[in-house]
């Protein structure tokens, strides 16, 4: 995945590539871009979500504000269970 992203930026940084795209009709550039964007989203979505449900967070901050947030969360949870 990183190779595709890096390659896209590398090609887009070339002046001749930008010039070439500017000469193409918008009726071609727009739909092509949209198709590539949707394809990319479909390919990368499973990678982005992989392991998301198993994510665990560790609370390590002991500041006063964090304690206030944690206490508020506990109170809110108590009311929701009723």
What does this structure look like?
- The structure is a single chain.
- With 82 residues, the chain is mostly helical.
- The protein is 76% helix and 0% strand.
- It has four helices and no strands.
- The protein is elongated.
- The chain starts with a helix and ends with a helix.
- The mean pLDDT is 79.
Q: Which tags fit this structure?
A:
single chain, 82 residues
Give a quick rundown of the structure.
The protein has 82 residues and is mainly α. The chain contains 4 helices and no strands. The chain is elongated.
Give the SSE map:
Blueprint: H1 2-12, H2 15-23, H3 26-49, H4 64-81
Coarse morphology: elongated
Give the termini separation. 47 Å
Query: How confident overall, as mean pLDDT?
Result: 79
Helical content stands at over 70%
**Could you tell me the strand content as a percent range?**
under 5%
Radius of gyration of CA atoms, rounded to a whole number: 23 Å
Main sheet specs? none
SS content category: mainly alpha
The run of helices and strands is HHHH
Please, how many helices? 4
Count of β-strands: 0
Low-confidence stretches: none
